[in-house]
C-alpha cells in the first residue's frame, strides 16, 4: 500500500528548497528578523543543549541555534530543502526521514528540546500527527521540551483551512506523556489570544 503523502509535498511537489531559501534571504536583506524561533528556543536552553529540529527545512533555525552553541540535528522529508541545509552548513547533521518513523533513523535519545516550527504539524500526512508527536516525545530526555508553532486559520497557513486544531495537538501531547508548560501568540513571546490565529506551544516531558 502506498504511504499517503504529507500536505507539504502535496503543496510543493518536494521542489521548494531553493525558493524557500531565497524568500528568507530577501526577508533578512530587508531588515526583518528571521531568527525569532531560534531566539525563543535559545531562551529555554542551557548552553550546549541538544536540539532536534523536526521538519528542519533549509536549516535556518538549526544553523542559528548551532551558532549560539547548541548541538542540532535536522530531519526533513523534502530532499530539496535538505540540499540547501547541507550546502549552507555541511558540518551539521541533516537526516532525510519521515517524522512518523524517527525511530528508524537511529537517533540517540536524550534531546533537551525538539522543535516543530513552520507549520510542521498542520503539514504532516493526514492521520500521522499523533504518531509524530509521540516520536518526538520519545526522543526527549526527562524534563525535555517540545516546542511547536502552527497557524490556526487560513491567514496563517498555506492551506484553505486548518487541518488540525490546537485542542487536538494538546490531546496528542497528553497521550505522549507531555504537559503544557506555556503558550504564546508569537515567537517573540507575546501573550496568546484564541483569536490571534497562531500559537507557539511549549510542552514538557516529566522529569525523572
Strand order of the largest sheet: 3-2-1-4-5-7-6
The helix-strand sequence is HHHEHEHEEHEHEE
Structural class: alpha/beta
Low-confidence stretches: none
Overall pLDDT, averaged?
A: 91
The count of DSSP E runs of length 2 or more, i.e. the number of strands, is: 7
Helix content: 25-40%
Distance between the termini: 40 Å
The helix count comes to 7
Radius of gyration: 16 Å
For the sheet with most strands, the description reads:
7 strands, mixed
- Indicate the overall shape: globular
Proportion of residues in β-strands: 15-25%
Name some characteristics of this structure.
about 210 residues; single chain; 7 helices; alpha/beta; seven-stranded mixed sheet
Secondary structure elements and their pairing?
Layout: H1 7-12, H2 17-29, H3 36-42, E1 50-54, H4 60-67, E2 71-76, H5 79-88, E3 93-96, E4 111-116, H6 129-139, E5 140-151, H7 166-175, E6 179-184, E7 198-204
Parallel strand pairs: 1-2, 1-4, 2-3, 4-5
Antiparallel strand pairs: 5-7, 6-7
Helix pairs in contact: 2-5, 3-4, 6-7
Amino acid at each position: 500500500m502506498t504511504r499517503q503523502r504529507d500536505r507539504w509535498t502535496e503543496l510543493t511537489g518536494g521542489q521548494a528548497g531553493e525558493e524557500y531559501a531565497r524568500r528568507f534571504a530577501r526577508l533578512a536583506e530587508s531588515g526583518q528578523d528571521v531568527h525569532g524561533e531560534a531566539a525563543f528556543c535559545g531562551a529555554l536552553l542551557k548552553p550546549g543543549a541538544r536540539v532536534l529540529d523536526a521538519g528542519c527545512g533549509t536549516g535556518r533555525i538549526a544553523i542559528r541555534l548551532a551558532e549560539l552553541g547548541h548541538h542540532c540535528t535536522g530531519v526533513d522529508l523534502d530532499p530539496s530543502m535538505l540540499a540547501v541545509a547541507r550546502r549552507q552548513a555541511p558540518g551539521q547533521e541533516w537526516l532525510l526521514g519521515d517524522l512518523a518513523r524517527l525511530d528508524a533513523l537511529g537517533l540517540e535519545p536524550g534531546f533537551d528540546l525538539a522543535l516543530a516550527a513552520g507549520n510542521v504539524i498542520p503539514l504532516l500526512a493526514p492521520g500521522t500527527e499523533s504518531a509524530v508527536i509521540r516520536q518526538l516525545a520519545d526522543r526527549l530526555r526527562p524534563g525535555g521540551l517540545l516546542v511547536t508553532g502552527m497557524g490556526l486559520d487560513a491567514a496563517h497557513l498555506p492551506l484553505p483551512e486548518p487541518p488540525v486544531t490546537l485542542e487536538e495537538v494538546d490531546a496528542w501531547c497528553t497521550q505522549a506523556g507531555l504537559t503544557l508548560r506555556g503558550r504564546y501568540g508569537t515567537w517573540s513571546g507575546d501573550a496568546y489570544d484564541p483569536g490571534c490565529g497562531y500559537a507557539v506551544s511549549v510542552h514538557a516531558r516529566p522529569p525523572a
